[in-house]
Amino acid sequence: xxxxxxxxxxxxxxxxxAVLLIQDAVGQKALTGRLPKSALSTDVLxxxxxxxxxxxxxxxxxxxxxxxxxxxxxxxxMTDSKPEKFVQTSAKQECFAMTFKGPAKGSLSQxxxxxxxxxxxxxxxxxxxxxxxxxxxxxxxxxxxxx
Length: 147
Known about the structure:
Blueprint: H1 5-34, H2 37-42, H3 50-53, E1 60-64, E2 70-80, E3 93-103, E4 111-117, E5 121-132, E6 136-146
Antiparallel strand pairs: 1-2, 1-4, 2-3, 3-6, 4-5, 5-6
C-alpha cells in the first residue's frame, strides 16, 4: 500500500484528533472511578440532571462571583444537544445547554460562578456570555457528561 506525503499530511491531523478524543474519554471515565466519595458528595452539580433543571425554566438563579457580587439570571431555555446520530454507550449520558437571560447592565464574563436556586440549592456553574441587546444579556451553560 502506497501513501503519498499529501495523503499522509491530509489525514494525520484527523487521526491525531481521534486518538486524543479517545484518550480524553477513557481518562475521564478512569478518573471518575478514582475520585473519593467525599469529592463526589460535595459537587451538587454532578447530581443535577436535565430533569432537575427542566421544571425551573423561567425561574430566577442567583450567580455570585468570587468578590461576592451577585446577579440574578432567569433560565429561559433548555436544549438537548446530543448529535443527530448519537450512539448512546451508557444509559446515563446527557448533553444539554441552558440559556439564561439577565440585565443588560453589568454583563457577567465567561467564568465559573456560585449559583443559588430556591429549589436546586447551591452549586458551581460555568457560563459563557452569548450576546447583548438593549434590554438583556444572554448566557449559556453546557452540561456534557456521564451521570
